[in-house]
Write a structure and sequence with these properties.
With 293 residues, this protein is of the alpha/beta class. It has a single domain (4-167, 194-222, 262-277), classed as Rossmann fold, CATH 3.40.50. It is built from 10 helices and 12 strands. It has helices at residues 14-24, 44-54, 68-73, 75-96, 130-145, 170-180, 197-208, 226-236, 266-271, 279-290; strands at residues 4-9, 29-34, 58-61, 99-105, 149-154, 157-158, 183-187, 191-192, 195-196, 214-217, 224-225, 242-246. Helix 1 packs across helix 7 and helix 4 runs parallel beside helix 5 (130-145). The radius of gyration is 19 Å and the shape is globular. The protein starts with a strand and ends with a helix.
């Protein structure tokens, strides 16, 4: 049996880097890492040319315009990268009979302001910012065009490589701020599930070995506010800084965030391949690998 060819788009990002590690030593795969310098997914001709040279069996798209606030002032770019580019990829994969893996977001939810229980895959989405709308549109393109696909919603990603679009992640931002500030304010009324990209990459590996195509939630187990997340980071790293809990109404930002966007990995559990750990376990391993503890 010939090895499967897997093209990883956004290969130098947080998730892309960990996917390379998770899949590179696994048979029967040949991995083709593609960075922005290698492929421009918003230009259909370039995307087709690059992928035709590979002839991938699986295309994993981790590339995204993920600056939530900037998406409000630049909706064209958000929709082009997060939506239209995935339309192109879906059309390509349908034509070539390839599997498409699209990484989506918990921010496709948020419209239900009274929500306090985790969302499952069958719950109706309702984004409240441009970024969430663009990611949901990307989902719909994949779902309506592709025959073989995995749409994977996740949340609060952090990984060793850092987010290329943000210059790091929440953890590195908090630790950098602690070096220059005596007091840090963090919102306490936005509830998420911070997810270590290494855990997510391993989960994606389990999923693409199946033919159970569809929409999945894949986040760390457990939930916390951004304030609780920051507090845990400082406690584990023994960082001495005063951290203040504030409501999001006191934090000025261009984009509105969901007050609750926790996802339940319902379908992964039903399929019997759920392997996501609690967010605190992932955070501890991340901090160790980065040398913070």
């Amino acid at each position: 049996m010939k090895n499967k060819k897997i093209a990883i788009i956004g290969a130098n990002g947080q998730l892309g880097s960990d996917l390379q590690k998770a899949l590179s030593d696994k048979l029967p795969y040949n991995i083709y890492p593609l960075t922005h310098a290698d492929i421009e997914i918003t230009k259909q001709d370039n995307m087709v040319e690059v992928l035709d040279n590979i002839q991938p069996d699986v295309v994993i798209n981790t590339a995204a315009y993920n600056n939530v606030d900037e998406s409000e002032s630049n909706p064209q770019k958000a929709l082009l990268v997060n939506s239209i580019a995935n339309k192109y990829l879906a059309e390509y994969c349908k034509k070539k009979n390839s599997i498409l893996v699209y990484i989506s977001s918990d921010y496709v939810f948020g419209f239900d302001e009274k929500r306090n229980i985790p969302y499952i895959e069958s719950d109706y989405p309702g984004p409240i910012n441009t970024y969430g709308i663009s990611k949901l549109a990307g989902e719909y393109f994949v779902l309506s065009i592709c025959k073989k696909y995995f749409v994977i919603r996740t949340s609060g990603l952090f990984g060793i490589a850092g987010s290329s679009g943000k210059g790091g992640n929440f953890i590195t931002t908090m630790l950098q701020l602690a070096k220059v500030k005596k007091e840090i304010s963090v919102v306490n009324d936005q509830i998420i599930s911070p997810t270590y990209t290494r855990d997510l990459a391993k989960q994606i590996h389990y999923l693409i070995r199946t033919s159970a195509f569809g929409l999945y939630h894949a986040t760390s187990e457990g939930q916390c506010s951004w304030y609780e997340f920051a507090k845990t980071i400082f406690r584990l790293t023994k960082t001495a800084v005063l951290i203040r809990s504030i409501p999001s109404s006191l934090y000025q930002s261009a984009a509105k965030r969901p007050s609750y966007s926790v996802l339940e990995n319902h379908k992964l559990k039903k399929l019997g391949i759920h392997n996501m750990r609690n967010w605190k376990e992932g955070l501890y391993d991340y901090l160790q690998e980065k040398g913070y503890i």
